[in-house]
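FAQ
Q: What does a multi-component entry look like?
A: The components come first, one per line:
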Amino acid sequence: MKIIILGSGDVARTLGTAFRKLGHDVAISSRDANKDEAQQWAKQAGGQVLSFSQIPADADFYLNCTAGTASLAALEMVSANTLKGKILIDVANPLDFSNGFPPSLSVCNTNSLGEQIQAALPDTRVVKALNTVSNPVMVNPATVPGLHHLPIAGNDAEAKAQVSELLQAFGWSREQILDLGGIEQARGTEGYLMLWVRMFGKFQTPLFNLQWQVAKEN
Amino acid sequence: MKIIILGSGDVARTLGTAFRKLGHDVAISSRDANKDEAQQWAKQAGGQVLSFSQIPADADFYLNCTAGTASLAALEMVSANTLKGKILIDVANPLDFSNGFPPSLSVCNTNSLGEQIQAALPDTRVVKALNTVSNPVMVNPATVPGLHHLPIAGNDAEAKAQVSELLQAFGWSREQILDLGGIEQARGTEGYLMLWVRMFGKFQTPLFNLQWQVAKEN
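Then the predicted structure of the entire assembly, as tokens:
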């Protein structure tokens, strides 16, 4: 499959490498395709680096791994129509580090980045996913013990099914992937970052995740 | 021990009954002490009902179980000095149901209800606790399987230790109670409600909680 990742940072490169290991054709992308780190990744992983404006329309999956506060601007640089009808997995969180750690959110509560992206790209099938775990956990859920969970959200059921299959290749089981409903549920999974960043401070490792425990019916 | 609960709703009455069963001297409270539901609770549970203005200064623990959006107004009705030096467990969440379910938060991200209460009552030892689980789980964590967690936050370590002991009487183990740090960490535990309300929608039961799974160190 052909997978194009918007972004060239840690999350983009970690996901890019993991998709390459699964045999996919992968490109990461940036404002400037000549960035050293990105080019170095391309050599090591056997992938490509594109500038946002070069992103083609023929990929099977697109992933938004840009910084959440810069995602809308990055998506504007992608040519119109490129993402029409396509699946865009929104991995980003709108974290605002302007006041240091822990960050706040630049959009939350009555809106979410997932919804903003879906509103900006009404013909794209946006699926919010992977934004609740750190990148080593994204691509290898077994890093963390237990039957921990990955909530996803999006308006298109078929797109969510395809994303779920893609994630299963990383080791996420069907049981671990929880479909919360429409893209507006991203308010919950992004809002959760308010707690995630504090648990990161508490545990002093990003290698954690939550497992829902639910009472059995009587 | 003498325990006074601000509020007379479901959460207040559930906690009140649980404290009565443990043999404590318990009062719930309201703007109007003659409310039918509150008086009925008092008869059944063997507790008292007070108006906010009648709340005495000699209790061992105070709990804020009012609706989060009304908590500051309720606390203003309590006589000045009553809560000076006292432990106030803030159980409330600032849920705004004005646009239906799921609710949004009336304060979040760069502030929290816990912090607002601590700021309004600088001489009170505010401990944010129990706000991340439904009332049946608060008083009986065994309702939910697994070693699920209860995050707490507050500026006073001794107050948190006392609250932890109080919660252990409900069955919360030391291992389950996670001290996140100062009261500003309430931004995380209240912000988590953004996800909680959606998981409630997903699971169709309030009898759930999260368990943190953390990678073992190598």
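Q: Is there any commentary attached?
A: Sometimes. For this entry: Chain B touches chain A through 43 residues (CB under 8 Å).
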